[in-house]
Amino acid sequence: MSTMNPAMTREGEMADENRAQEQVEAPAETIIEEGTTVGRPFSDDPKFKLRNVEVFYGQDRAIKNISLDIGRNEVIAFIGPSGCGKSTFLRCLNRMNDSIDICKVKGSLALDDQNIYDSKRDVVELRARVGMVFQKPNPFPKSIYDNVAYGPRIHGLANRKSELDDIVENSLRKAGLWNEVKDRLDATATGMSGGQQQRLCIARAIAVSPEVILMDEPCSALDPIATARVEELISEMSESYTIVIVTHSMQQAARVSNRTAYFHLGHLVEVNETNKVFTSPEHDLTESYITGRFG
Amino acid sequence: MTDQKTQAELVRRSLKVRYRKERRFRAYGILAIGIALSALIVLFADIIGKGYTGFTKTTITMDVEMDGEMMFLDDATDEQQLKMADFVEPLVQAMIKQIPGADEDDRDKVRGLLNPYASNELKNLLKANPDWLGETHTITVLAHTDVDVYVKHAGDAAYSIKLSDEQQRWVDGLLESGVVDTSFNDVFFSSGDSRDPSRAGILGAIVGSLLTMFVTLVLSFPIGVAAAIYLEEFAPQNKFTDFIEVNINNLAAVPSIIFGLLGLAVFINLFGMPRSVPVVGGLVLTLMTLPTIIISSRAAIKSVPPSIREAAEGIGASKMQVVLHHVLPLAMPGMLTGSIIGMAQALGETAPLLLIGMVAFIVDVPEGFLDSATVLPVQVFLWAGSPELAFIERASAAIMVLLAFLISMNALAVWLRKRLELRW
Q1: A131 min Cα distance to partner chain B (Å)
Q2: Which residues in chain A have their CB less than 8 angstroms from residue B323's CB?
Q3: How much is the pLDDT for A30?
Q4: What ipTM is given for this predicted complex?
Q5: How many A/B residue pairs have CB atoms within 8 Å?
Q6: Average pLDDT, stretch B338-365?
Q7: What is the pTM of this model?
Q8: CB atoms within 10 A of CB B314
């Protein structure tokens, strides 16, 4: 005990120094010119066309003039340090920010050339087309079956019980969960393991046959094995869905995505083919981040 | 090295102080709980000690000869004759037979042992069995309250014994021969209030309480939950809703008698509703309970994890669907427990009901929401203030009944919370 204590304090001091250095190394405002993104932010066949997007939380500008295309059936990963606005930006894509009173979105955001933030736009219809999977697995405290069937039920996608059964089975199969749960569809979802819960949430999102699936750090609460299952699943799904994934794990971004977008303090710094971002990043900030100098 | 030693020494010393503080803090806690528990024990011991005798009644059982001539009755089916007949005499004669040494001259003293209502009991018996006329049957009737007090509290300085020495001797003898006996006080649970303690019961008050609580529940639960859902889920965040919120919180702290005044002024004087009826009582208690229900319901809604809300919204559930399918079921246990606790509060409320006239002396058991009624706590208040000491034990007994209701309501709340609580 007597020798440990001083050592620990010294270590703590060193950590503090490191943190101070980080801030010196990444003086964002001086390096990034607003509204400029290096790399290839635009796409030939865009599903989402996002131009000059700005998001305000009250007086704070959380997203600063971002323009980006998200291609059809592509997997795009958003990476960046905590608080850089990647989740905020993701949540604009299906208007999940609507429930936050002080949140204001400016700019033009279009899904298949239709404005997402049009006052006449029906949010319910939008969210049926743009599904979402959250950071923490959040199954409803109901049975596994009811979890998956909930979306189709409220949207009236099935007329008969057998149709609903089919949707549930297909969704669970796509999420790679069918074999594990087919015998206990009536069991409550909250009793499953974390990885199973997250895949159930993916099945629930798929069940309403969305065109886009937004994933907000879907694996951050999962162990490596469950993470591998979910990543496998993302790769399989990329054939039929457009997937936007926010992640803190650069390996994950490298494994699952076609393109990677690097966010920094509300700016979109660089967008490029994933292998390019991780092998030869164009922007200094991107390089610092992926080499682990800060973040 | 020396530097490190002293640091360890410092830590050790500070640890000692910390542990001492911890022990002291724990001792304070135990002391506080001890005081609360002993106060509770004293309270229960006092109430039960004073009140348990309220659950017994003193009766007189004897063979009564229903002599038609003595009673001026030759047809027990004739209403007119029944009205005029003398039902006291057979009882008195039967009593005299039971008391060695008593004769015709003592008939007034003997009659003093019988409950004034005893002749009515005999009349009802004969009415039900007209063929008993002329026969002898074993009948049990209530003893006089003075006998009741003597049997239960002889030697207790707090009670004054009104029986004469001779009567006391008679009662002692009758107790020995088993003519005078105590048994479970069914009268207490089957009749309304009375001027005579041994005939006073709490059924009227219980029914009054149930009717009032029903009105309160039917009004306050839906209104409270609806208000909570609106304020929590749909209302815009602005000055006006802030104002409403502050006022709801203030209302929860308003003394209940103010609600009684409001009920008197608005429901009775302005709307012309009748006095002392469960409907008005229920309305007043609704006003009083609403803030509690709204506040607890809002807390329950707030405690629903936002992840569930997001999950539903993410699939494309509308606001209404999110609330109905997900928020409400998860918030329901909290809402129910809040409401039950609010109802328990209302059940024990006296002050506002005094102002709307539910303090009246009401003998009949109310049969509807517009019948004059009183409620349990008011009945306790009435009896506790009565100059007749025999009412004190009734008051304590009524308190026990009230406490039983309150404890079972709270137990129901705990059970519901345990039962409906879902873990995620």
Answers
A1: 6
A2: none
A3: 46
A4: 0.78
A5: 83
A6: 90
A7: 0.79
A8: 26
